[in-house]
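Quick one, tokens below:
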């Protein structure tokens, strides 16, 4: 069996792509706030624009980054669950449709191999950066562990009901 067909590889690739997309959204939010600050600085006084800059750039960007880290914490919990099932050689019975949809969408959008490799490298760097931020922010690791435990409980309940 080819490595690219493993569920953990597919899930890891999807989580990396989600990480890149979320980082691009955060960057876009910051850029829009930065542009709004310059627009306001031409309309109002520079002192008002400096105060508005904190509101328009920093707070929404931090809020959006925290939400994206929360989403990635749940995705990391799912990735840990998939790796756990593959390590114990159990079949996965809890599929996440968004992994399949992400894979189909990325295959439709990325047709060139060179562009695909560049996007894969950028998404892995983005994922590594977000994992670094997650380690700094302990709560995201905690949420990922809670997700992992909940998925294990669901799996055990499904196995008990199938055996009865």
């Amino acid at each position: 069996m080819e490595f690219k067909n493993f569920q953990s590889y597919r899930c890891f690739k999807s989580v990396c792509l989600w990480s890149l997309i979320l980082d691009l959204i955060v960057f876009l939010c910051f850029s829009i706030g930065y542009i709004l600050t310059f627009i306001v600085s031409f309309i109002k006084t520079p002192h008002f624009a400096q105060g508005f800059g904190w509101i328009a750039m920093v707070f929404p960007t931090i809020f959006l980054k925290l939400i994206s880290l929360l989403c990635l914490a749940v995705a990391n919990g799912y990735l840990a669950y998939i790796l756990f099932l593959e390590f114990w050689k159990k079949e996965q019975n809890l599929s996440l449709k968004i992994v399949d949809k992400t894979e189909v969408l990325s295959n439709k959008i990325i047709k060139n191999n060179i562009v695909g490799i560049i996007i894969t490298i950028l998404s892995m760097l983005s994922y590594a950066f977000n994992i670094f931020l997650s380690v700094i922010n302990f709560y995201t690791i905690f949420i990922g562990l809670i997700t992992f435990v909940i998925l294990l409980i669901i799996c055990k309940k499904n196995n008990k009901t199938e055996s009865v």
